[in-house]
Design brief:
The complex is a heterodimer of chains A (295) and B (263). Chain A has 295 residues and is mainly α. Helices cover 71% and strands 1% of the residues of chain A. In chain A, helix 3 runs antiparallel to helix 9, helix 7 crosses helix 9 and helix 9 runs antiparallel to helix 12. The longest helix of chain A is centred in the N-terminal third of the chain and has 33 residues. Classes of the chains: A mainly alpha (295), B mainly alpha (263).
Chain lengths: 295, 263
């Protein structure tokens, strides 16, 4: 480490190295974040002068049926997606962690590939696959004598389809994180448990899960933030429909801000979204710490 | 083993199905019974997509944005990572924490004030509006900083004793030693910018400045979707990312595990 004492000729050098990055951060993240908070208390629109209106936007939000629906949808989608993702990606990691299967590396790569695609292309691919009349999934169901399923055009199923596709997309990504978490657990622990005659389930429950909990926390926080950001997938798969069945907050924010030009009101929605992310992350932190204390 | 193969099929099938279908002539696309492989392979859909002038523009815009933004990201992340990892100065921890905090503020939450900020700077409807703001990424800084702490101080000291200035040390010692992390940051940055939808959506409204993701979203949103064309364009969009991944797999895997678990 190099230390330049204040007052010496070159104390400003590290700041110079930081400057370009910091400048962009301040201009395009920090200032907008503060401004967004301020805007949520105004009736801002692009072409008129903003007036301070206190908590009026927030009051209106809690009576706004469409917003409340998107709020509920976002919450349901996020919780179910995060839970399913943790289970599936941990499962995949356990399958591909030991080098017992030939071509482990190739399989890891295959599972990882979907997470490389943009959500727009993922949505297009799945809309093509899940189409009512012309999708291959319904073709297969029909040729087995079943009835076509309305994957994207019936309310509850559309939500389920969106969740499943999200899991399909990200499971391989979180699998990699879980695998590197599993690699930090000392093998001796399993050997000792084996010698003591512990069953595989028992050593999973009392060695793997507790020692993996920091990784599980990271995965669930990343997955939560990701889930709350969901927009592109819905846009291409269902457009938020049928009705409002799969409309999430981000889509509502975009429409209210840029199509209805109610920027202050939409900012208030963004603040609620930010608070949701914060609260859920906090709960996850608390939850994992509580678990740790019980051990 | 069987379970693993089954999951692998589930992971790959949708992508293969899109790619294979893009080689089917329109008449065959939705014909029942469906077949996995085209009966009659055709490049018609690709020819139509590529010859369409607008698609060439979208493609060119996307390449330009992804490449330039990646170069900027690499340079400023390595610089910031070097400052945070190799210097002691007042406010260092504060700045590092500040950058990590921005990880918790997704674009989705601040898109409205960002739009206004870009408007103020005259960056709306300009490709620079999608290039500059996302170039500063906390993940990039974080990865670079972690990597810098592994470079021995003695190398830097030696270069200084030989009379190298700070900028010389950075260029001749740090950059050559940082090649692996430069590659990792470059790959991720390129992928993020290539796949971006929300940034261009906020910044760009003129059609000659749009990116491919925007164009694809537009095509699939139409009432009558021309699937044959759309599938060809989707395949072209996916292809560069998959090629980069297959060629440089190890960097990907390192990037995720280093970035996520230590984070």
């Amino acid at each position: 480490m190099t230390e330049f004492k204040k007052g010496t000729r070159q104390f400003w050098i590290p700041y110079l190295f930081l400057l370009p990055n910091l400048l962009i951060f301040v201009l395009f993240v920090i200032i907008p974040a503060v401004q967004g908070l301020a805007m949520s208390f105004t009736d801002w629109s692009v072409f008129s002068k903003p007036n301070f209106i206190g908590f009026a936007n927030f009051k209106e939000l809690f009576a706004d049926e469409v917003f409340l629906t998107t709020f509920r949808n976002t919450l349901v989608y996020s919780i179910l997606t995060v839970c399913a993702l943790v289970v599936v990606s941990l499962g995949l990691a356990l399958l591909l962690f030991h080098n017992t299967i030939k071509g482990v590396k190739a399989f890891r790569a295959i599972f990882y590939i979907p997470s490389l695609l943009s959500m727009i292309t993922v949505g297009i691919a799945w809309r093509f696959i899940l189409g009512d009349e012309m999708g291959i999934v319904n073709f297969l169901i029909r040729s087995c004598g079943g009835k076509g399923v309305q994957w994207l055009t019936s309310g509850k199923l559309a939500m389920l389809s969106v969740i499943l596709v999200s899991v399909w997309t990200y499971a391989g990504y979180y699998m990699i994180i879980f695998i590197s978490g599993l690699q930090t657990i000392p093998v001796e622990l399993y050997e000792a448990a084996y010698v003591d005659g512990a069953s595989r389930w028992y050593s999973f429950k009392s060695i793997t899960l507790p020692l993996l909990s920091p990784t599980t926390l990271v995965v669930s926080i990343l997955a939560t933030i990701n889930a709350f950001k969901a927009y592109e997938l819905i846009l291409t798969m269902t457009k938020g429909g049928p009705g409002y069945a799969t409309k999430f907050i981000v889509q509502q924010v975009y429409e209210v801000a840029f199509l209805e030009d109610r920027m202050g009101y939409a900012s208030a929605m963004s603040i609620i979204l930010m608070l949701m992310i914060g609260v859920i992350t906090l709960i996850q932190f608390k939850g994992s710490r509580g678990e740790g204390e019980n051990e | 083993m069987i379970v693993v193969i089954l999951f692998a099929i589930i992971a790959l099938f949708p992508i293969l199905w899109v790619a294979l279908s893009s080689f089917k002539p329109q008449s065959e696309l939705f014909r029942i019974p469906m077949r996995i492989f085209p009966e009659q392979w055709t490049l018609e859909n690709y020819a139509e997509a590529l010859l369409r002038g607008s698609f060439q523009i979208y493609f060119r815009n996307t390449v330009f944005v992804s490449v330039i933004s990646t170069i900027i990201t690499v340079i400023i992340s390595i610089m910031a990572g070097y400052a945070l990892g190799k210097y002691v100065f007042p406010g260092r921890n504060f700045m590092f924490t500040l950058m990590l905090c921005t990880l918790m503020i997704p674009l989705q939450v601040i898109m409205i004030p960002i739009f206004l900020q870009l408007k103020r700077f005259g960056l709306l409807n300009s490709l620079w509006g999608i290039i500059i703001p996302p170039a500063a990424t906390p993940t990039g800084v974080f990865l670079a900083r972690q990597y810098m702490t592994t470079i021995p101080d003695s190398l830097i000291e030696a270069a200084r004793i030989d009379g190298g200035g700070e900028w010389f040390v950075f260029r001749k010692i740090i950059i050559p030693l940082s090649k692996p992390i430069i590659a990792t940051i470059a790959i991720f940055s390129f992928m993020w910018r290539w796949n971006d939808y929300l940034w261009p959506l906020i910044v760009i409204s003129k059609s000659d400045k749009q990116t491919i993701q925007q164009a694809l979203a537009g095509f699939v949103g139409q009432l009558q979707v021309n699937w044959s064309n759309l599938l060809a364009m989707t395949t072209i969009t996916i292809l560069p990312i998959i090629i980069v991944f297959l060629a440089l797999q190890n960097f990907f895997m390192q990037g995720i595990s280093a970035g996520a678990v230590k984070g």
